[in-house]
Automatic annotation (TrEMBL), chain A:
PANTHER family: ER MEMBRANE PROTEIN COMPLEX (PTHR12941), ER MEMBRANE PROTEIN COMPLEX SUBUNIT 8_9 HOMOLOG (PTHR12941:SF10)
One Pfam match: UPF0172
Official protein name in the record: MPN domain-containing protein
Superkingdom field: Eukaryota
InterPro entries for this protein: EMC8/9
GO cellular component annotations of the record: EMC complex
Origin species: Cladocopium goreaui
UniProtKB/TrEMBL annotation, chain B:
TPR repeats: 158-191
Assembly description: Component of the ER membrane protein complex (EMC).
GO cellular component, one term: EMC complex
Subcellular location: Endoplasmic reticulum membrane
Keyword Ligase appears in the UniProt entry: no
The EMC2 TPR-like domain, residue ranges: 93-201
Protein name, per record: ER membrane protein complex subunit 2
Record SUPFAM superfamilies: TPR-like
Organism: Cladocopium goreaui
């Protein structure tokens, strides 16, 4: 598959991923990006927060299978297009999640991995460092290839300030209490973020 | 802790200071880590000046949260108050070490901890801080080495076995991680968390049979535990793939049927996440 010409993030997908990593700033965090390829651009339209403890085989498998079922019923073109992660040490190396990333890339050739660079958050910049799959290798994604409505960055900052990250539910939380929904369908209900359109 | 108990307290704490104090106590007892909430409520409570005897505990709690979040004003204030009241306390001495850590002054922090250890070599907290410092500066292999040395002396400290297990998971040494969790099971055979993590590790190293046993035990101890049930279902699937003939026997068919039935029942009440779960469960029938 040809290298991707860019990655476009839906406002809520970006905000949800950032809030998830902010909620567990002293743990390793992992989540999925769902989306589809639109020509050469990868559109990330939804985020599924997974873990804030270790990510081991069985639960990771179940979480991915559930996410795939969700994709099928939400929109036929939707699939798992990447993952995001964060480490308590702040390292943006993809090594800890490389095995998982390789698995995702086996199913979606243009997969990408996004590591949180928390130093970018205070300046309201795009806070993930990307690695994209190009011809069976992981290559750094230039920041010029990422498109996100600029309003989203300031709204995400506001949400962090309002401590809205406390409301994010991930798959770990769901496993501990089934009533908590990893789909987070009401996380942004009534929030200004809902009205911002994707680029 | 009952499901929802903590979340209810978080909501209540917004409107009443008694509830806020209760929330902070609850977080201490159950070791819930959410420093932003501690700082938010703790700061208000300290300002109210009506804490009485609780003041010192709350000051310590706020100090820890502030040190972690880089909220220097509160960190310094709490430490000043605590030092004033307990000038010769070892517990406050450790907090001074943590203050240095939060300023990334590793040398000074190490000095403080070493000083504590020179007069009180059995001070496990100081040992643990020294280990944590390796971890914070990203030196995982040094941290692992330091923990192993620590465990030679304090071999029944399951908190440290846990830390070591998590570090091994982080670097991908799952066999070694499994060994650490075995130690933890010996110390506390009924801990759901330990049993479940051990089961997940066994699965990850390919020992599906043993993994199934531990997931089964977890599902026996807590019938509707989602992690245990999903784990059991995944193990059954993996084993069925490996040995088709054996898994066709009635016993194993029954086990998978029971597991899936329980999950189906559980997910009926779970709203939006029930839909993908129902579809997946339909696919998992052997």
């Amino acid at each position: 598959m040809a290298p991707s010409a860019g990655y476009s993030f839906h406002p809520q997908a970006y905000a949800k991923a950032v809030l998830h990593v902010c909620k567990h700033s002293s743990s390793s965090v992992l989540g999925l990006f769902l989306g589809h390829a639109d020509g050469k651009v990868i559109k990330v339209v939804e985020t599924i927060p997974l873990f804030h403890t270790h990510a081991l085989g069985p639960m990771l498998k179940i979480a991915c299978m559930l996410a795939e079922e969700h994709c099928k019923s939400a929109d036929a073109s939707l699939e798992i297009v990447g993952i995001y992660h964060a480490t308590p040490s702040g390292s943006t190396e993809m090594t800890p999640v490389k095995a998982i990333a390789d698995k995702i890339a086996a199913n979606f050739a243009s997969a990408s991995v996004w590591s949180l660079d928390a130093s970018k958050l205070p300046d309201k910049h795009f806070a993930f460092k990307g690695m994209g799959r190009v011809k069976d290798e992981w290559k750094a994604v230039g920041s010029d290839l990422v498109s996100l409505n600029s309003e989203v960055l300031s709204e995400t900052s506001r949400l962090i300030g309002e401590m809205r990250f406390l409301d994010v539910v991930d798959f770990d939380d769901h496993l501990a209490d089934g009533n908590k929904s990893w789909l987070n369908e009401t996380l942004f209900a009534g929030d200004k973020l809902e009205k911002i359109r994707a680029d | 802790m009952e499901p929802g108990e903590y979340d209810a307290l978080v909501v209540k704490a917004r409107s009443s200071s008694t509830a806020a104090l209760e929330l902070l106590q609850f977080m201490r007892t159950h070791k819930i880590h959410q420093p932003e909430l501690v700082l938010q409520h703790g700061a208000k409570l300290v300002r109210s000046q009506r804490l009485g005897n609780e003041l010192w505990t709350v000051l310590e709690q706020v100090f820890m949260a502030a040190a972690e979040l880089g909220c220097d004003d509160w960190r310094d204030y709490c430490l000043k108050e605590l030092t004033k009241n307990f000038p010769s306390s070892l517990r406050v001495e450790r907090l001074k070490g943590i203050e240095k850590e939060s300023q990334a002054d590793w040398k000074e922090a190490e000095k403080i901890y070493q000083k504590i250890l020179s007069t009180k070599p059995e001070d496990t907290m100081a040992h643990k801080r020294l280990i944590a410092m390796h971890k914070q500066s990203g030196k995982v292999s040094e941290a692992i080495e330091a923990i192993n040395t620590y465990l030679q002396t304090f071999s029944t400290d399951s908190e440290v076995w846990h830390e070591l297990g998590e570090l091994y998971i982080e670097v991908g040494s799952l066999q070694r991680a499994a060994f650490c969790f075995e130690e933890m099971i010996v110390h506390n055979p009924r801990s759901m968390y330990t049993i479940l993590t051990y089961a997940e590790l066994l699965y990850s190293v390919g020992d599906f049979e043993a993994s199934r046993k531990y997931f089964s035990m977890a599902a026996y101890l807590d019938e509707m535990n989602l992690r245990a049930l999903w784990g059991l279902a995944t193990c059954n699937m993996a084993l069925a793939e490996k040995d088709k003939a054996r898994e066709k026997t009635k016993q194993f068919q029954e086990l998978q049927k029971l597991t899936l039935e329980r999950l189906k029942t559980a997910y009926k009440g779970f709203g939006a996440t029930g839909k993908p779960a129902a579809k997946l469960l339909a696919m998992m029938t052997l």
